[in-house]
Amino acid sequence: MQQADKLWDYHDPATGCSLPAPYFFDPEVFAAEREAIFLRSWHLVGHVNEFRTPGAFVCQDIFEQSVVVVAGRDGTIRAFHNACRHRGNRLINQRRGTVGTVVRCAYHSWCYGLDGALRSAPRSEGLADFDKAGWGLAPVRLEVFAGFVYVTLDDGAEPIAAMAAGAEAEMRRFLPDLDRLELVEEVDVEVAANWKVIQENSIEGYHFDFSGPVHRQLASLIDFMAYRLTPHGKWWTYMAPPNPQAATAYGEPLAGATWQTDWFFNIGLWPNTTLYCFPFTDMVGTFIMIPLAPEKSLLRFGYYAPAGRPVSSVTKAAIAWMNRELGPEDIELNVTNQKGLHSFGFRQGRYLIDAANPHQSEHLVHHFHTLCYRAIRE
Question: The pTM is what?
């Protein structure tokens, strides 16, 4: 992409043009996003309740970097680079699991405690100037926010609570069981689309009426005219109250069901994390767009339900509906959108900015594009 092609004037979303198409497939842009966005941002790993048992771990990949988050015997959750300090061998290759009292390298059997300290290194006794205390696992910065565990590779990153001031209060207003959640299911899906194509699809309601029958089903469960998409800097919400006439949802009757909220509630945290609740469901979903290549992303769908009570039939049906119907309908749009961005007949478009119909306006897409552009260009 030529230097002139990288310029974009984002100051007037109502009359200006959209983010240029090469920003969704150019390798130089992708490399810049890797450095300026993802190696400096917070990444959601899992819920704190996944780390109640000593040795319970979750691994998080950030491009070629791998971080292991593990529960210590003292109850502290810690994060470390997933690499042995001897020769760099990756220690753990599973996404989730439980280790014993130590993390053992399968190559030369160096063993680390759950606090990251090097416990043993076979045949190291004769090494000159070797002190195990200086060869523990390299730590990674970790924070807990609204019940979920996040890591960052940037020690200078702004704390999440400061970056997203006010977000936790908004989450707890709609998701009362945030502290009692347990993982029900996690699903990973590779999609042939740039991560921003996927994100922008999720933060506009313009396509709900036009793109497919499943989106129209979702719109029928809510007061779609009251759907509001609101930027708050590096976090944003998009939500709508329930349709009071709804008697069924996802093919199940609502009579007797329980739920976190009857609203359609979504909250996005910069750059690629969404937490949400579908109407009339007793779950909190996580939706993460993980970039793998300029035109390939991993979508990670997590489903969490309150501990101590059975998952309702409506909630089970909603999870299946997301995995088998709504998700695939959106993914097809992501893929066809990605293909079209290469057309000689398209370079930039226009945002539908419509204050009279805010439920269908694309102002939040413009806001997100501006954050991305400024991160790598300014």
Answer: 0.96
